[in-house]
Amino acid sequence: MNQVDSATLNQKFGIAGQLEFAQDAGGLVIARINNQHAQASIALQGAHIMTFQPAGEQPVIWLSPAAKLVQGKSIRGGVPICWPWFGAHASESSFSGHGFARTVPWQVVSTEALADGSTRITFELPHSSIPSAQWPHACRTRNIVTVGKALTVELATENTGNTPFEIGEALHTYFAISDVSDMRITGLEGCTYLDKVGVAQSRTQQGAIQITSEVDRIYIDTAADCLIEDLGLKRRIRIAKRGSRSTVVWNPWVEKAAKMGDFGSDTGYRGMVCVESANAVNNVVSVAPGATHSLHVTYSAEEI
Fold first, then answer.
1. pLDDT by residue (tens digit) across 70-93?
2. CATH code of the domain in which 282 resides
3. Is residue 1 in some structural domain?
4. Which residues are catalytic?
């Protein structure tokens, strides 16, 4: 079946009144979910969640108004999947940073209307999308997305071969906030982190995270929930994770955002912050033959 054909996808996987597929002007196929709880959109390229907005509320997931929806290019905002490595490849500088999963086609393998009114869609990374020179291991990788009152994402990697392999990974989630000066992130107090701004060095988090300049940090050995407390929107976003031992916090600030060119206005960086559930640096995961590792995260919003 041609998974790029939106008409065929609608016939096989569409759910009346909840889920339909459409082709974007740039050629990307987008799954659009609109149920009683929320609206969401997901690109089949990268199985990339682009938007999530609970009914009657402000968006939880940030998508840049200048995001480029182009085949083979990562989308600025949403929930990019970093897999099977995070950051630069350990030995091959020519390989794409954060792996290849976010820029290649994924397949829809199932959809389901759940009893509570939520909608679930499961994507699989086909072998044809995996560059064997970069990833020679036998595996099956799925991204299972459930859109309801909360947004739940499960990135599952099954080792179908005979030898173990290591993966680094992250759900590189961009959150919508009122203004970076009106929010703080809690849950990482006392954690050790690798500060990647300037000369990389190890530090310890003191108190809540407040952002007043470029931030690029990998917090290690932490499975804790994180909370984004947004005073401007008078809400709290909870990031509850399992199967993750790292958390990455990122905001490019003025100069880097301007160089990227797809943040929208000159102040686009002020309306977002990335809090990424990950397994990175010394928290990479070894997956034994026959085993499955799952990175499971639920994003929910509540009033303060």
1. 999 999 999 999 999 999 998 999
2. 2.70.98.10
3. no
4. 172, 276
